[in-house]
Design brief:
single chain; 662 residues; mainly alpha; elongated; DNA-binding; Mito_RNA_Proc_CCM1; PPR_rpt; mRNA binding; Pentatricopeptide repeat-containing protein; repeat
DNA sequence: ATAGGGTTAG
C-alpha cells in the first residue's frame, strides 16, 4: 500500500504514539459502521485530532474511499481541524490508487486556493514520491497542478510547474499547455501567451496546429493579423501546417479591422492551399460585411452559402436576423425567428437582444415586452445586452412609467423616481440594477459619467468612477477621455495633468481594436484623447502646443482621424493661414479621409473671412456634389458671408435653396 | 474560429 510509505516518511518528523494509533482506529471504526454524522459530535474529534491522526485515518486501507472523502470534507468545513498539506497529499495518493483524477483535481484546487497550503511543486513531488515509485503518477500530478493553476489564473505558479517539469525532464503534453494558452488568451494577456507559446516550441513539447490556432486567434481578435500570419509562416517551416481554425481567425482579424477585401482574399488563399471553408468562414465574412453596414451584401453572401449546401445554425440565423433588423425589415426578421424555432434551433440571448433592439428602433414597445417575456418563459435569462437595450430605450424615450415596470422585472428596488430628467432617470436605474445584483459594464458607466460631466456635476462623475472601481470594473481610456474633456472645457489644466498621472499609475489602457493597432496593443491614450487636448489648446490659443501634439500623434502611431484634421484645419483658418489649412486638407484626403460638414464649414468660413467668395462657393458645391448634405449652420455661414461681402442676391438665392431643402 | 447593445473629441 503506497500510502503506508507516506506515513513512514512522515513519521520521521512525527513520533507515533499508541494513543494516536488508538484514536485513529476508533475513528476508522466509527466511520465504517455509520456515516460521518454521529462522529461530528463525538469526543473523539474534540480531543486528540491532530495532523498525524488524520493521516492515519485517511491512509487506512480498511476505510472506504467514500468514507475517506466524507471525513476529509468534514474536516474542511471544520475551522478547528482544517486538513493540512500532508492530509491533502495523503488523500491524493489514495485517490490515485483508484485513478480518481477528477477528485485529485479537486484536492489540488483546494491546495492552490489556500495560501497556507500552497507550496512549490518540488515539495509536493518529493512528498508524494515517498509513497510511490510510479513515474506516471508524478507526471500526472504535475500536469494536473499546472492545469489547476492555469484555470485559476495563477500564471506565475503555473509557469513554476512548467519550469519544474522541464528541469526534471517530465514529459509535458500539448493539451496541458493549451490550458494555459487559453487562460492567458481569455485574460487578454496576449504578450505572455505569445512568449509562453514560443517557450513550448523551444521545449520538447510535441505541438500541433491546435496550439498555433489558439495564439493566432488571440492575436487576430486584437487586430494583429500580420503578427499572426508571421507566426503561422514560422510554424510551417517547423513542419506544422495551420488548420481551418487558424485561417478563419486570420479572416476574422481582417474583418475586425474592416479590411473586408483582404478577408475574402484570405478565404481564396486557404482554398488554394486545399482547406475547405466551413460555416464559420462564411459567417465571419458575413459579419465583417455587417460591421461595414453592407447588409445587402451580407445577406446575399449568406444566401450563397446556403446554396452551396450549408445549413443554418444558431449563429447564421442570428446574423441574418440582425441583417433584416438593421435594414428595418422586422417582419422578415421575425419570420426567420419563427423558422429557426420550427427547425429546432433554440434562440438565445443574442437572438432576443437583436430582435428587441430592432423593435426598439421601431418604437414597438409591445413587441419588445412580448419578446422579453417569451425569453424568460423559455428559460433564456436576459443578460446585460438585453438590459442595456432596455435602459437606453428608457433614457431615449424618457418613458419613466415603462422604465419602472422594467425595473420591477429586473429586481426590486425601493426608491421611486420623482423627476423626468434623463440623467436622474438613468442614475436611478443604475442604482436599482446594482441593488438587484445586475452587473453593468464599463460602457454603461461611461455613458452616465459623461452625462454627469455634461451637466457639470463633476462630483457625481467621480462618485460613479469610484463605484466602477469598487466593483472591479476596468476604468478605461474612454472614462478618462470623458473626465479630461470636462476639465479641459473648464480650463483646469492642472487637473488634467493629474488625470494623466493617474492613468499612468493605474495602468489604464485603451481596450479597443477599432482605432489603430498600437492602441490595440495597449496604448493608454487614443485618437480621441489627442483630439480633446488639441482642441483645448486651440481654444486657449496655445497653437504651438497644439501643433506639437499633432506631430506627436504620428510619432506615437496614433492615427489622426477626420476630427483631428478638422480641428487643425479650423485652427489654421481662424488664424488666417489658409495655405496651411488647404495643405492639411490634401494630406487628409490622401489618407483616404473624406471631409465632412464640419471640415467644409471651417474651410468655407476661412475663405469668406478673406473675402474669397468664389472659392467658398466652389467648396460648397464640391461638398454637395460629394453627397454631404448641408445643414442650417453651414447655410448661415454662407448667407452671412455673401451678404457681408455685398452679394445680397446670392444670399437670397441660397436662402431659398435652404428653405426648399427644409 | 463566427453572431447582439451602449461611451468620449471637431
Amino acid at each position: 500500500m503506497s500510502t503506508q510509505k507516506l506515513i513512514r516518511a512522515f513519521s520521521r518528523t512525527h513520533i507515533p504514539s499508541n494513543q494516536h494509533q488508538e484514536t485513529a482506529s476508533n475513528i476508522v471504526q466509527a466511520l465504517s459502521y455509520s456515516s460521518i454524522e454521529p462522529l461530528k459530535h463525538s469526543p473523539l474529534i474534540r480531543s486528540t485530532l491532530n495532523s498525524y491522526v488524520v493521516q492515519l485515518v485517511l491512509s487506512n486501507p480498511r476505510l472506504s474511499l467514500r468514507s475517506c472523502l466524507q471525513f476529509f470534507n468534514f474536516l474542511r468545513e471544520n475551522p478547528a481541524h482544517k486538513p493540512d498539506l500532508a492530509a491533502h497529499l495523503t488523500l491524493i495518493c489514495r485517490l490515485y490508487d483508484v485513478r480518481k483524477f477528477t477528485d485529485i483535481q479537486f484536492v489540488l484546487n483546494c491546495i492552490a486556493n489556500d495560501v497556507n497550503l500552497r507550496t512549490p511543486v518540488s515539495n509536493i513531488v518529493s512528498f508524494v514520491e515517498h509513497c510511490t515509485v510510479d513515474p506516471i503518477f508524478v507526471q500526472k500530478l504535475c500536469d494536473m497542478l499546472f492545469r489547476v493553476y492555469a484555470d485559476n489564473g495563477m500564471f506565475k505558479e503555473a509557469t513554476g510547474v512548467f519550469d519544474y517539469m522541464e528541469k526534471s525532464e517530465i514529459e509535458i503534453h500539448e493539451r496541458c499547455c493549451m490550458v494555459l494558452l487559453l487562460a492567458l488568451r481569455s485574460c487578454d494577456k496576449m504578450d505572455t501567451c505569445f512568449s509562453f507559446f514560443q517557450r513550448i516550441v523551444g521545449a520538447k513539447v510535441e505541438i500541433t496546429a491546435k496550439s498555433v490556432a489558439i495564439v493566432v486567434s488571440g492575436l487576430c481578435v486584437r487586430g494583429e493579423v500580420e503578427r499572426a500570419k508571421g507566426l503561422m509562416e514560422v510554424m510551417v517551416t517547423k513542419g506544422i501546417e495551420p488548420d481551418v481554425l487558424a485561417y478563419n481567425s486570420l479572416i476574422n482579424g481582417y474583418c475586425i479591422r474592416g479590411m473586408l477585401e483582404e478577408a475574402i482574399k484570405m478565404k481564396a488563399i486557404m482554398e488554394h492551399k486545399g482547406f475547405v471553408p466551413n460555416v464559420v468562414t462564411y459567417s465571419t465574412i458575413a459579419s465583417g460585411m455587417c460591421k461595414l453596414k453592407r447588409y445587402e451584401e451580407a445577406k446575399k453572401w449568406l444566401f450563397a452559402m446556403i446554396k452551396r449546401g450549408f445549413t443554418h445554425n444558431l449563429v447564421t440565423f442570428n446574423i441574418l436576423i440582425n441583417i433584416y433588423s438593421k435594414m428595418g425589415n422586422l417582419n422578415e426578421a421575425h419570420r426567420l425567428f419563427e423558422e429557426m424555432k420550427e427547425g429546432g434551433v433554440r434562440p438565445d440571448n443574442v437572438t432576443y437582444s437583436t430582435l428587441i433592439d430592432g423593435y426598439s428602433k421601431k418604437g414597438d414597445l409591445q413587441e419588445m415586452m412580448w419578446l422579453f417575456e417569451e425569453m424568460e418563459k423559455g428559460g433564456v435569462s436576459p443578460n446585460m445586452f438585453v438590459y442595456n437595450i432596455l435602459i437606453n430605450w428608457c433614457c431615449e424615450t424618457e418613458n419613466l412609467e415603462e422604465a419602472e415596470r422594467i425595473f420591477e422585472k429586473m429586481k426590486k428596488g425601493g426608491v421611486r423616481p420623482d423627476t423626468n430628467a434623463k440623467l436622474e432617470e438613468a442614475g436611478l436605474l443604475l442604482g436599482k440594477l446594482e441593488k438587484g445584483g445586475v452587473r453593468l459594464d464599463t460602457f454603461t458607466y461611461n455613458t452616465l459619467i459623461d452625462a454627469y460631466c455634461k451637466e457639470e456635476k463633476l462630483e457625481q462623475s467621480y462618485k460613479l468612477r469610484g463605484c466602477m472601481e469598487a466593483r472591479g470594473l476596468r476604468v478605461d481610456t474612454v472614462t478618462y477621455n470623458i473626465l479630461i474633456d470636462a476639465f479641459c472645457k473648464k480650463g483646469y489644466f492642472k487637473e488634467v495633468e493629474r488625470l494623466f498621472e493617474e492613468m499612468e499609475k493605474d495602468d489604464v489602457r485603451a481596450n479597443e481594436v477599432t482605432y489603430t493597432i498600437m492602441e490595440a496593443r495597449g496604448l493608454r491614450v487614443n485618437t480621441v484623447t489627442y483630439n480633446i487636448l488639441i482642441d483645448a489648446f486651440c481654444n486657449k490659443g496655445y497653437f504651438k502646443e497644439a501643433e506639437r501634439l499633432f506631430e506627436e500623434m504620428e510619432k506615437n502611431d496614433v492615427r489622426a482621424n477626420k476630427v483631428t484634421y478638422t480641428i487643425m484645419i479650423d485652427m489654421y483658418c481662424n488664424r488666417g493661414n489658409l495655405t496651411k489649412a488647404h495643405k492639411l486638407r490634401v494630406v487628409m484626403e490622401a489618407m483616404g479621409i473624406i471631409p465632412d460638414l464640419y471640415t467644409y464649414a471651417s474651410l468655407i468660413n476661412g475663405e469668406f473671412s478673406f473675402g474669397k467668395l468664389d472659392v467658398a462657393l466652389k467648396l460648397f458645391s464640391e461638398m454637395k456634389q460629394r453627397g454631404v448634405i448641408p445643414d442650417l449652420f453651414i447655410y448661415t455661414i454662407i448667407i452671412l458671408g455673401l451678404s457681408k461681402h455685398g452679394r445680397p442676391d446670392g444670399a437670397l438665392r441660397l436662402y431659398d435653396e435652404m428653405i426648399e431643402a427644409g
